[in-house]
Amino acid sequence: MFMKPNLRAFDRLVRFLLGAFLIFAALVLFTHPLARVLATIAGIYALLECLTSSCPLYARLGMKSSADVLKSESLYLLGLLGVQGVLAYEWWNAGWGKVSSPDFVSGIAQTLGFFASKNPFPWYKDFLTGVAIPNAQAFAYTVEWSQVAIALVLAGSICGYLCVKTAAARRWVLILCALALLGGALMNANFYLAAGWTGPGTKGSNMVMFWSEMVLSYIWLSALLSRKKA
Predict the structure, then answer these.
(1) Closest by alpha carbon to 55, among 116, 113, 12?
(2) Concatenated DSSP letters for 44-108?
(3) Which residues cross the membrane (predicted)?
(4) How far apart are CA 84 and CA 93, in angstroms?
(5) In angstroms, rounded to a whole number, what is the distance separating the alpha carbons of residues 69 and 134?
(6) Model's pTM, two decimal places?
(7) 97 closest CA partner among 171, 35, 38
(8) For residues 198 and 70, what is the distance between their CA atoms, to the nearest angstrom?
(9) How does pLDDT run across 181-230, given as a tens digit for each residue?
(10) Pairwise CA distance, residues 149 & 183, whole Å
(11) Which of 36, 155, 182, 227 could form a disulfide with 88 if both were Cys (CB 3.0 to 4.6 A apart)?
(12) pLDDT of residue 25
């Protein structure tokens, strides 16, 4: 499973801290059984990489030994995929929380009514009262399952981009990833317009996610167009 040691002391320290935090989160922070299992597995894997000083992903990206250094392109790629992983987690947490709770669908009409009550955008208030609220149940199912789908595509595209080898497969990964990011940005824009007025936390988090998704979608679409020209 593990290869020749290729991690520096700093990389091992990062993995130790990450593994310890994930196991702590599994034991203390997370309540959902699946989240606990996944966090435990990821934490143990990070600790194993720390103990063995070996990272298969780094080896795949060209870092065969601890004396090697990741290329700037590979380092930037890991950073972008890390941000995308955070977005995937956020969408999964939001979507699955709604899917697993019957209160979301049953109370969506009241929630939308509250969002419309003091909404500062007249045209969006008209959308809420004229379209969303009359079709509240369908709107609720669309929102919750769209969030789950976005999370799965974003997470799956990370694995796909790192694992697939053919140019055609990578193009499809980039296309699906960009579509999920643009869909997420559209949802964040709607959440901002609907509920941004309720508090700075809701307003700020949706703005951060929106612009992160727009930047990532631009990068992946640019990469897709560059591959087509090549």
Answers:
(1) 12
(2) HHHHHHHHHT--HHHHHTT--STT----HHHHHHHHHHHHHHHHHHHHHHHHHHHHT-HHHHHHH
(3) 12-31, 37-63, 75-92, 145-164, 171-195, 207-225
(4) 14
(5) 58
(6) 0.87
(7) 35
(8) 44
(9) 999 999 999 999 999 999 999 999 999 999 999 999 999 999 888 866 65
(10) 10
(11) 155
(12) 95
User: What count of residues does the chain have?
Assistant: 230
In whole angstroms, give the CA distance from residue 100 to residue 148: 11
Give me 115's structure tokens: 């969002």
Give the long-range contacts of residues 164-171, CB within 8 A, separation 24 or more.
167/227, 170/227, 171/224, 171/227, 171/228
In the numeric block, the tokens 């034991």 are attached to 27
CA 119 to chain centre: 28
Name the least confident of 26-35, 90-99, 102-111, 121-130. Answer: 26-35
**Which tokens hold the place of 83?**
């941000």
Structure tokens at 192: 């901002």
Q: What is the pLDDT of residues 93-111, one digit of tens each?
A: 999 999 988 899 999 999 9
Specify the residue for token string 């703005």. Answer: 207
CA dihedral sign, ordered 174, 175, 179, 185:
positive
